[in-house]
């Protein structure tokens, strides 16, 4: 009786990363901040009576107003991401200590 010996090939185990509420909130924050930054340029585009696109350059943010708006956006981003990640950091820490 002959036995057929075969060696097994190395197997790669691929684990899918779980989609958590924390990652969804971080992704939402990225899109919200990007949308606010994009609004600097897109609110100036409008339609005239002939349904043609035109750029309202007289309403463009300049100088101090632009700096204030950017400071607001980046300040909001820092607060948002800090609160989301600090909350989940302490939530995970509490969950690990109770287990």
How would you describe the overall organization of this protein?
With 99 residues, the chain is mainly α. The chain has one domain. It contains 2 helices and 2 strands. It has helices at 21-42, 63-98, and strands spanning 45-47, 53-55. It has a two-stranded antiparallel sheet with strand order 1-2. Strand 1 (45-47) and strand 2 (53-55) form a beta hairpin. Helix 1 packs antiparallel against helix 2. The longest helix is centred in the last third of the chain and has 36 residues, at 63-98. The mean pLDDT is 85.
Kindly list the characteristics that best describe this protein.
single chain, 99 residues, mainly alpha, two-stranded antiparallel sheet, 2 strands, elongated, transmembrane helix, transmembrane, membrane
Quote the average pLDDT: 85
Provide the β-strand percentage band: 5-15%
Return Rg in Å. 26 Å
Please describe the biggest sheet, giving its number of strands, its sense, and whether it closes into a barrel. 2 strands, antiparallel
* Element pattern in H and E: HEEH
Strand order of the largest sheet: 1-2
Number of strands: 2
Distance between the termini: 55 Å
């Amino acid at each position: 009786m002959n036995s057929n010996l075969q060696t097994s090939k190395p197997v790669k185990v691929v684990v899918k990363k779980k989609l958590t509420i924390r990652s969804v909130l971080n992704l939402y924050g990225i899109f919200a901040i990007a949308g606010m930054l994009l609004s600097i340029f897109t609110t100036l585009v409008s339609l005239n009576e002939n349904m043609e696109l035109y750029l309202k350059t007289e309403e463009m943010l300049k100088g101090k107003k632009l700096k204030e708006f950017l400071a607001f956006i980046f300040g909001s981003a820092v607060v948002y991401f800090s609160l989301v990640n600090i909350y989940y950091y302490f939530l995970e820490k509490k969950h690990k200590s109770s287990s």
